[in-house]
Write a structure and sequence with these properties.
Blueprint: E1 5-6, E2 20-27, E3 31-34, E4 36-37, E5 51-55, E6 58-67, E7 71-80, E8 87-92, H1 94-118, E9 121-126, E10 132-137, H2 146-158, E11 163-169, H3 170-175, E12 192-198, E13 202-205, E14 220-227, E15 232-239
Parallel strand pairs: 1-4
Antiparallel strand pairs: 2-3, 2-8, 3-7, 5-6, 5-8, 6-7, 9-10, 10-15, 11-12, 12-13, 14-15
Helix pairs in contact: 1-2
Length: 240
C-alpha cells in the first residue's frame, strides 16, 4: 500500500489553505486515496478537513479524512466516475479550516497558561468548530478560576505573539523548559517532531493546523467548567 504524503505538515500557517493537485491511487464506493493530500486527517483532537475533489470525469465532496496505513478521503455526492491514475484538483473548506486553526492555537494557549499558573497538565482535548473542550489535571483544582483563565488567554491573544512551526529532535525538546508535555509519553520511535512554538510561552509537538500569530484568534469565553473526577476539570470555551 502506498503511503500518502501529508502536505499540511510542511505548511504554516494553516489558515486560508491553497487548492492542491494530486493523483488517485485507490478508489472504493465511499472513499478515495491520493498520492499526496493537503486535507488534514482527523487527529490530535482536531477534526478532519472538508472540501471538494474534481477530476476530468467526476466531482465529489470530501466529508471526512482519516489516516490509517494511507490517508482515506471519505466522499459523498459523487457525479461521474473516478479511476486510479486520474489527476484531481482539491479545494479545502476555508471557513472550516480557519476556525479550527484558531481553536487549536487557542487550546495551546489554555494548556500552556494553565500549566504555568496552576501546574495543570492537559490530559485530553477535543477541538470543535463551535466550541472546544480541554481536560486539565490539577494538584489542587480548587485554585482554578475560570475568569482569570480566560483573562490570561485573552491577554496572550492581544499580545499578538508569533506562532512558528519547525522540526526539532526529541532530545532537544526534552531539554526545552517551554515544552510542557511529558516527552517520555510520546512514541519513542519518532526522532524528529513537527513543533509549534508560541512566542516565549510554549513549545509543543503538534501535527495540527494553526494561525500565524495569536492576534488572529478572536477573544475566548469559557462557557462551562465541569468536574471529571479527582483533581480534573473539563473546560469548554468558544471564540467570540
Amino acid at each position: 500500500m502506498m503511503m500518502t504524503k501529508l502536505l499540511h505538515l510542511e505548511q504554516h500557517p494553516g489558515v486560508n489553505p491553497n487548492s492542491f493537485k494530486s493523483t488517485i491511487t485507490s478508489v472504493s464506493d465511499d472513499r478515495i486515496e491520493l498520492q499526496s493530500t493537503g486535507y488534514y486527517p482527523q487527529g490530535g483532537g482536531q477534526p478532519a478537513d472538508k472540501g471538494v475533489m474534481v477530476g476530468t470525469d467526476f466531482e465529489c465532496k470530501v466529508v471526512d479524512v482519516r489516516k490509517r496505513d494511507s490517508v482515506l478521503h471519505y466522499i459523498t455526492d459523487m457525479s461521474g466516475t473516478p479511476n486510479v491514475g486520474d489527476q484531481v484538483e482539491c479545494t479545502i473548506d476555508t471557513l472550516w479550516r480557519n476556525q479550527l486553526s484558531a481553536m487549536h492555537t487557542a487550546q495551546h494557549l489554555f494548556s500552556a497558561l494553565a500549566n504555568e499558573e496552576w501546574g495543570a497538565q492537559t490530559v485530553g482535548n477535543q477541538i470543535g468548530f463551535d466550541r472546544t473542550r480541554i481536560d486539565l489535571q490539577f494538584e489542587n483544582r480548587d485554585a482554578f478560576e475560570a475568569d482569570y483563565m480566560s483573562d490570561m488567554v485573552n491577554l496572550a491573544i492581544e499580545d499578538n505573539m508569533s506562532v512558528k512551526m519547525d522540526f526539532r529532535p526529541s532530545q532537544e525538546l526534552i531539554k526545552d523548559p517551554l515544552v510542557r508535555i511529558n516527552m517520555d509519553r510520546m512514541p519513542p520511535n519518532i526522532d524528529v517532531w513537527r513543533t509549534i512554538s508560541i512566542g516565549d510561552l510554549d513549545v509543543c509537538p503538534c501535527a495540527g493546523t494553526h494561525v500565524l500569530q495569536t492576534g488572529d484568534i478572536p477573544p475566548v469565553e469559557i462557557t462551562r467548567v465541569k468536574s471529571k473526577g479527582a483533581g480534573r476539570l473539563r473546560i469548554e470555551y468558544i471564540l467570540n
